[in-house]
What does this fold into?
Amino acid sequence: MQDKLTETDTYVVEFMTAVLAEISSTPAVQPTGTSGSQDVFTRYLTDVRFGSITPNEAAAATIEEVDAQVVTG
It folds into this structure.
């Protein structure tokens, strides 16, 4: 089959072979609503670092807020 490939086809096959060696897998699709989770984590971490809230308060608030953002079912 390789003798039937055009020059462009051969280039594409070589390129894809090189690229696929670097790609192990695609990242998992995140649940709807989790895109803002990192902001929530960062905000509460900052609050803990500046002493505005305790780590336990931050943990509870983070879980509550992220759970509220995530669409289930």
